[in-house]
Amino acid sequence: MDCLLVYEKNAASREERFGSLAQALRRAAELAAGGCPALAIADAKGRKLMDDAQVRRAFVTMSAILEETEPAANGEAPLPPIEIAKRVIAEHLDGDHRRLAEYWLTLWDGDQLPRRVSFRPERVRDLLPGIAVFEVKPNVSVHCRIAGTAFLYRFGLDIAQKDWIELTAPSKRTLRLERNTRIAQGAISFCRRLDPNRPQGAALFSDVQLPFRAEPDGTVCYLHHSDWRPRNSEYEMARTRLGEIAPAEEFRPFDLFPLAA
User: Fold this and answer.
1) In angstroms, rounded to a whole number, what is the distance separating the alpha carbons of residues 8 and 250?
2) Do 192 and 94 meet the contact criterion of CB atoms below 8 Å apart?
3) Could you identify which of 2, 27, 240, 248 might form a hypothetical disulfide with 193, taking C-beta atoms 3.0 to 4.6 angstroms apart as the criterion?
4) Is 202 inside any structural domain?
5) C-alpha angle 8-12-17 in degrees, rounded to nearest 5
6) Domain for residue 44, yes or no?
7) Does residue 234 fall inside a structural domain?
8) Buried (b) or exposed (e) across 136-172, using 16+ Cβ within 10 A?
9) DSSP per-residue letters across the chain
10) Domain tally for the chain?
11) CA-to-CA dists, residue 105 to 90, 131, 206, 211, 261, angstroms
12) Please, which pLDDT band fits residue 105 given cuts at 50, 70 and 90?
């Protein structure tokens, strides 16, 4: 998403164009640190997405997400994969994302990722509208196996049993396959994005991806949870939806098996 960072400094209004919300937020932090009195982020058509207070709150949140989680430093022995996972979850997830991830942690077998068959949907029943399971053949394909009702209302179609790459905007298919392959290779990932159909202040939402253990044929499933839920008119299936099915503007992977990478 092209974004405009609009700001006022020394009584002169200015704007800068960025290719992603994350880039605009990083620049906003630099301006705020320099004493810039007013900031706002707009879309490429100049429609305001976030005002000054929302920009500053969002950057604080994103800064925490973007902090590096180093499994080993200063010559220390590397952390076991499950300890890396626990640290990532404790430091970077909260709310429903964290609750799902903590249940996922209970399914580990020592330092081995959980198996897909170990997941019991009834244990997280209230989260099911925002849960999907994707199946990845690394560097080859991605298919959605199951998807909660939130995805139906968000996209206006049932993505279950669909080729996730074919549903993706053509210009973003390679990126999506690369990201899904990274998850399949053993990475927790966190994404933050804007819903172009929502007004400023309500557009930000996030997703988390949690990998399962690889199957004998090399395919890997992963849990996907989105905190997007339909509101009011969004329950209308036939409503007009702006934007396209595309990867998130911000993708942050945390490798659980760094020595194997």
Assistant:
1) 26
2) no
3) 248
4) yes
5) 60
6) yes
7) yes
8) bbbeeebbbeebbebbbbbeeeebeebebbebbeeee
9) --EEEEEEETTEEEEEEESSHHHHHHHHHHHHHTT--EEEEEETTS-EEE-HHHHHHHHHHHHHHHS---S--TTPPPPPHHHHHHHHHHHH--HHHHHHHHHHHTT-BTTBPPPGGG--GGGGGGGGGGEEEEEEETTTEEEEEEE-HHHHHHHSS--TTSBHHHHS-GGGHHHHHHHHHHHHTTEEEEEEEE-TTS-TTS-EEEEEEEEPPPPTTS-EEEEEEE-----GGGG-TTS---S-S---SEEEEEES-GGG-
10) 2
11) 12, 16, 20, 11, 21
12) very high
- Give residue-wise pLDDT tens across range 194-224: 898 888 777 899 999 999 999 999 999 999 9
Q: In the predicted model, is pLDDT for residue 97 greater than 60?
A: yes
154: tokens are 């968000």
More confident residue, 90 or 41: 90
Question: 11 and 125: one domain?
Answer: no
What global pTM score does this model have? Answer: 0.73
Based on the domain organization, do 116 and 239 belong to the same domain? yes
Nearest C-alpha neighbor of 187 from the set 260, 119, 131: 260
For residue range 142-193, what is the model confidence (pLDDT) as tens digits? 999 999 999 999 999 999 999 999 999 999 999 999 999 999 999 999 999 9
User: Helix 81-92 to helix 52-66 angle, to the nearest 10 degrees?
Assistant: 170
Of 246 and 258, more confident: 246
Residue 42 lies in a domain: yes
pLDDT band at 79 (very low <50, low <70, confident <90, very high): confident
> Which residues span the domain enclosing 115?
81-260
Best CA proximity match to 117, nearest among 224, 212, 181, 211? 212
